[in-house]
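ERR on first pass: missing label on line 2. Operator R.T. fixed the label and resubmitted. Corrected input:
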Amino acid sequence: MSEAPEATDAPKSAERAESTASAGTEPVFSVRNLWKVFGPKASKIPGDTSLTGLSATELRERTGCTAAVRDVSFDVEKREVFVVMGLSGSGKSTLVRCLTRLIEPTAGKVDFNGEDVVGMDKDALRDLRRHRASMVFQNFGLLPHRSVIDNVAYGLEIQGMGKAERRERAAEMVDKVGLQGLGERRPGQLSGGQQQRVGLARALAVDPQVLLFDEPFSALDPLIRRDMQEEVIRLHREEGRTMIFITHDLSEALRLGDRIALMRDGAIVQLGTPEEIVANPADDYVRDFVRDVPREQVISVRRAMRPLDASEAADATGGATLAPDTLVSEAIEAVARSGESCRVVENGRTIGIVDHASLLTVVAGINREGESDGGGDKAKEVAAV
Amino acid sequence: MSSPTLTKDEDARPATPGPAEGPAPERPDTTPTALSRFLGNPKAVVLVCAVLVVVVSALVSGSGAWPGALTADVKSPLNDLDDWLVDNRDTHWLFLYFLLHFSNAAESSVDSITSLFDSMGWIGVTVIGTLIAWAGGGADLSRRALRTGATGLAVFLICGILGVWEPTMETLALMVVAVVCAAVLGFLLGLASGLSDRFERILRPVFDTMQVMPAFAFLLPLVLLFNIGTPSALIATVIYASPPIARLTALGLRSADPAALEASASLGASGWQQLVTAKLPLARKQMMLGLNQTIMMCLSMVVLASLIGGGGLGDEIYQALGALKIGEALVAGVAVVLLAVLLDRTTAAAGERLDDVVKAGLTKTMARLRRAVWGLIAVLIALFAAIGSAIGEGEWPDGWTVDFTNPIDTAVNWLTDHIGSGIPVLGGTITWAEGFTESVLNPLRSGLLATPWWALALLVAVIGWIVGTWRAALTGVICLALVGWMSLWDVAMDTLSQVLAGLVLTVILGVVVGILCARIDRVERIMRPVLDTMQTMPQFVYLIPVIALVGQNRTGGILAAVIYAAPAVIRITAQGLRQVDPAAMEAATSLGATGRQQLFGVQLPLARKSILVALNQGVVLVLSMVVIAGLIGGGALGYMVVQGLSKGNLSQGFPAGIAIVCLGIMLDRLSQPSKGRVRD
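pass 2 clean. output:
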């Protein structure tokens, strides 16, 4: 059981590697030791080891500076949805703006497809923003004096594309995000959800390699938020575009994220798959955060199963079978239906057994509490990828 | 200091002005007596002491003129300068190679517009004017477009019927050139200060000072450079009228939605692209508002600039006032007001249109149609310019005018005879005016004159310190000293007494009506169009009815000033009261407060800031009008400026102009809360 984290992670990353095999394994964004400090003489702070260890309040008292992003490192793989989650003020919005230097990072390294973003000159940076990474904003950032089509075509206009061509492209995008027939409206005439669809279409119109989302749905009603999340999931399924998604909403992070980086006071506290974070919180802060998550909907059977005992190993052919990636909630249904335990089968080999007891411990979170205390170090290892 | 904690807290807040204010509503457990509260507030104590010093010293000394030893002879150097200018205006390189170009360009551009109007004929001008008004309103069949178009048609026809076609065209020609120049200059300045912080820092105090300066003060320096004539009038107008559009352009650029700008940057827009595609379009509304204000200020100045040879309607008014021909002045004044209404409505409609919700699908056709209308206007101008003289006379046909002058004069005479004086018990307007002069203005003036200059300077310093900062106090004292130094102390005290009397009346009237407007919706509905119209009228026009009512004297000037300044005070007060946090009002209602308790307990205290802003505006506007009233018997500094202008007497007019500016800056600083100053 204590081996579970690695065991779970391996096939997932293998899957990811498989899906991106044609494009190579180089990460899209590679961020190393990134710092963003606001305040007087901000550039001194990341290099000063006597200061880097201080807490946020101590740092502010000592230097008058605020570290919005402190020593953050992560890779974003191709075709993955990478979610950065944290409460307001945790530095997540600053972090995502540092990636295309909408905010200049104070120190650290940001590579985009192996190119050094921090070292880019104006033209190269402009090219990056125009063609390769575009962003969707919390407050939409639409131009109220332009029609929907012209808003969507805005990025193409900036690129210098001719009017007829860009309007045609924009019209396609408007249809794609489900705003058929609204192209000539003004943003002011649309609902919040529709406005954010325009923002999404605008970002998609330039056909970027990466989409950056800065809390795009926070300003929307819960129902519309759900619609929009499904829209993003659909787009990702259809196009497989790499996405970096900022949110303060845990359920949104769990729904969308292939991997989640949880931020607090500018630093990443834990980085891992939704399942890892829920099953193995790195510390009390994270544990507190994920307390109310319905575990059966995040944790897979692989983590819930127990090894076969001798008698079961002998009789390893009968009864219902489950794939190891099946969610516990689905397994509960299968087990309840069959009335007995189910075998977990991977590549034709039975690797474990789930029964009422093992599933209930997941739902109740009993056993895992103890486990995660012991497994905390492992989770941290994952976080330090 | 052994003051109670409560007042200490109050002093800690620098924004808390007001010497006589009571303590904050949340009282400590032990309610202090009025005396101890007063003694605990050092500012109040200092103020009362200063007032006592002023009163006592005034009583004791009896005459407080500025000491002769501290004055300087400013007249002879100014006379020398004047002589030099007269001698060199046609020969010196500064004029030949620099200023002459300005005045020639100004002259020829105004002339060409005038001759264009002339060759278009009255039919052409009326048609084009109506079309432009209609296009400004949206160029469609909506109520707004039809209304502005109809206003345009009516205004031109009425101006013709009133028999003031020619001066109207002169004014309009000067307006066209002035508005274009002021808009371009203002836009460029606004662009610079909207984009560069350094420009903003340089321009802001300049604009602030210009806003305080009475329009009158702009005229003299230009006469100095360009002599009397169209160029002076035009350039004075451009300088006077460009700040609003510059200010609002800068504001629009700076307040553009940061999310939209960030989105634009995130898509890789260069600085130029961002300016053209995002910042400027987002600032359109503010820029339209600025253009509206600039146009209204242009009109006000073009009319006033008749004093320095601007010609047109203003000149008609000026001449008629000088000859006491109320009828003629009123006819020209009506034409000015009509022009003001037309220009205001048209630009306001054009501004409102930016907010319009465009129906889907209609956008393209409408845009095309609107462009077509402007094209049509351009073609028609050319057409009328070519053949206009053939289809009608250049000017409004004489037979079609109706003479209102005589009936008006008769009516005014009747008014003067019947309600001017001699009404049993009540008296009459002229009697009242005399009474006001006798019993308020004269004592106030002699009181100010009796006060020793140092006591007055002390009072100014104390008020400045209480209201603002030591800097405000210093500025006030310096301004006052400058006035004395130019040996204008007595005259300035005369002006000051008028301003103070006018200010008190304005504030009382303004705040009372403002409260009524804020609390009774019907009053608000009635007052709104009245205020709208009053705020668009050029200052000059206010003098005409006042003369008819109370004759030429200081009281007339004050009455004009009160009427002129009250709308702004009413509006700001009403707005402040209405903007009081609804939650606070609701809380008061839920606690069972009566309307009166709500007003005095919640609304007025919370709206104190806007009432202070209203006071500040009132001061500036009253001064500006009191000075212009020098034309109709207001005397004092304004009269000196008028004399200086009309006789070309630089040494008399110039120091008086500077003294007016000094008084303006002093009064502005003394009435300007140091922090969180709200601009309208």
